[in-house]
Write a structure and sequence with these properties.
Elements (H helix, E strand, L loop, with lengths): L3 H11 L13 H20 L6 E6 L12 E4 L4 E4 L8 E4 L2 E4 L5 E7 L9 H20 L2 H24 L10 H4 L3
Antiparallel strand pairs: 1-6, 2-5, 3-6, 4-5
Helix pairs in contact: 1-3, 2-3, 3-4
Length: 185
């Protein structure tokens, strides 16, 4: 079963560092992994629309309206990482942890959630996080820019492979037909 420690150990192995048994052990590698792991996870989740992290929710408006400019405000879910744009006519903006709109009194939101359970990750996304951790930890733990550069190359490869696989597992959104083309039919 995958765990945060196993992901960190894979990153440490890429750097030639010793494995850890927990993020709370008194070693430099464990402290550094514990310090950056959550930030790296959230950063990598936010970078791309990962299928495994998609979620849907219907939001009810908050009891208080925005100060001005909009009729309704909605609080984003606590696990929200990024909103996934949908083909809707609704006019809304995100401000802080709120969505403001005048168009609707309920809001259907598709978003990327913060998947903290490593066991729920796509395997290729786990590879991306491993390489991102290795790149971030490389100089601090090894004082080696060549290991950092190798980890950066590994990261780019892992990201490309993960994004490609993710794209094949999703039905493409249909492009709306251009009026110039439909006018000729």
């Amino acid at each position: 079963m995958a765990s945060v420690v196993s992901v960190c150990n894979r990153a440490l192995a890429l750097l030639g560092e010793a494995a850890i048994t927990s993020l709370t052990e008194n070693t430099r590698a464990a402290r550094e992994c514990g310090r950056i792991f959550d930030d790296i996870r959230r950063r990598e989740l936010r970078k791309h629309i990962w299928n495994f992290a998609r979620a849907r929710v219907t939001l009810a408006p908050d009891s208080t309206a925005p100060a001005f400019g909009y009729n309704y405000q909605f609080t984003l879910p606590s696990d929200w990482i990024r909103t996934i744009p949908q083909n809707t006519a609704a006019d809304w903006i995100t401000e802080g942890r709120k969505i403001l709109t005048s168009e609707t009194d309920t809001l259907e939101l598709v978003y990327l959630k913060d998947v903290t359970d490593v066991g729920q990750w796509d395997e290729l996304f786990a590879d991306v996080v491993v390489c991102a951790l290795a790149e971030t930890l490389a100089e601090k733990l090894t004082q080696s820019t060549s290991k950092r550069d190798a980890a950066r190359r590994d990261y780019r490869t892992a990201l490309s492979e993960a994004r490609t696989a993710n794209a094949f597992e999703k039905v493409a959104d249909e492009e709306p037909e251009d009026t110039w083309i439909t006018a000729r039919l």
